Amino acid sequence: MRRIFVLVFLALAVTYVANAYAEQPRLATFHETATVLVDQKLSNNVTASISLQTTSLQEFQIPKELDAKIHNDTNVIAVIITNEDQCVLGVQDRVCVMINVKRVDSEGPVQEAQQKAKTSGDMIIGDIDKFLGFDTKFHSAFIHYDDSANQVLGTEGQVSGRDTVSAVYVMPFQSSDYLFNTLAGDLIPSQIRGMGGFYDVAQKLAKDDSARVTFTILPKGQISYMQLKVAEKYPDSARQMSEVDPLKYFKVDELKRSEYYKAGFFPLNSIVHVVILPQDQSTTATANSIIEKTTTGNQTVPASLESSGYFFDSNSGKKIDAMYLYGTTYSANSNDLKISFPNSALASSPISIGTTEIIILVVIGAVAAGAIAYYLKGIKSR
User: What domain range includes position 259?
Assistant: First the structure.
């Protein structure tokens, strides 16, 4: 798996000095991530999303029987529920449930791959319908052939991409406000929903007519990475930009962390993530608050987890990849979160990537959070 966040290596690389903050850094299974994707290269869109993620069935309460069925079918690589305008080609104005399986080239003709996906989907869809009160109907088995956007972002088709097959089930369209509250009400305990933070921003964002909701389950080994995401797209707005203010897209004056994390020091559970695909690959970015870096074990990492500010991934390849860490603070304003980058205004035409943007944001949030949860369990004060 190609690196999405440098922070997934912190447990292997960071030496944490707890001089001013006596408490050990801790990592909860519940994560909140605010992402802004500025895509000057492919679609010319800006996409803002709030993701709530966990690996705990106590924090996202899907039935154990459903979780077991997903894990018992080793063909299944993802389950996606979304009201995106076009979950796959040929589907418009519907809520989609997609059960994704990986196709191996040697498995035979297209029809066999499609039947395999439908067989896996049919085993699971009844449990999903029962849990969420859905009444879906099978639509099609769709083979994904294009992997260009995954290659640019380094996501390697982990949810979708080349030779992934989706068994697609549909039902009538639901507004994002209704779908988000239905999913959140069934999934997230009231104690977490009542603690505010990014959840409140997601709930507000879902009220916009152009916002879309996606819930994803990624089975990995014995656990599931689960993500509830609200995203809003700002079409044809990226190429003119030379500065990004995340709060503008989330329509708030400040971004507060959840009260869930006030029980201790959880420096990596609330993250603002800005990804820029610039027209010019030599473009660099800067921000008002930047966390100092240090190098340990050939990895460049934040010098302190107590500091607030942006950490820029210096090895992000063709994209600018920046994460805002709150440190010991609990809110961030526009001055904290703005990122500036030169705009060379190169003349080029955007490439239509369709529903791949759903996959990009799923992978940026869910896989990264799962990797952080795995690697950071060894952090200790020194």
Answer: 6-378
